[in-house]
Model the fold of this input.
Amino acid sequence: MELSEKECEELIIMARKAIEYYNLTGRIYSANIKEKGLMQKKGVFVTLHTYPENELRGCIGIPYPEMPLIKAVIEAAVGSSRDPRFLPVYDEELKKCIVEISVLSKPEKIDNKMAPKIVVVGKHGVIIRRSYHSGLLLPQVAIEYGWNSETFLEQACLKAGLQKNFWRMPDTEIFIFEAFVFKEEKPCGKVLVQKLNG
Done:
């Protein structure tokens, strides 16, 4: 899924506004947007990084296309500012963070035995599901750490709270997806689209 430059900018602004509104009121921001592109149901992740250190500050998302894109961005943005792994991100710190948004394609189930051949590093994100365990890694994570497809699958298992070789087991489900990723160059700066195609 491709978005226009204007739509990308609008979503980044909306993510910031949603966090600021939640910090102020403790409520989820309600956006009055009717643009068709932003009303499509899509999975979304919002990631916050410190600037210029580029350290992860929060990353939360809605993996499946359950709600309109704009609403998913608002909920994921608030979630990322309240990521349970970190302290909450308040306005003063938010001004020093970069906002990144990943709009996901619908996850597609793949065959376990063929997974290392099917998963293309830099193009695909991975979801591992087994019983009540679930773990998701965005495509850009594999690039960031220089993983190959097998390591990527192992890391997704660890994220799900499983042993790293559990992706090989027939009762473990593996899903892949692609992401349209865009982020600020610097806090409140120009919005850049990241090309992910493996």
Remarks:
- The chain has seven helices and nine strands.
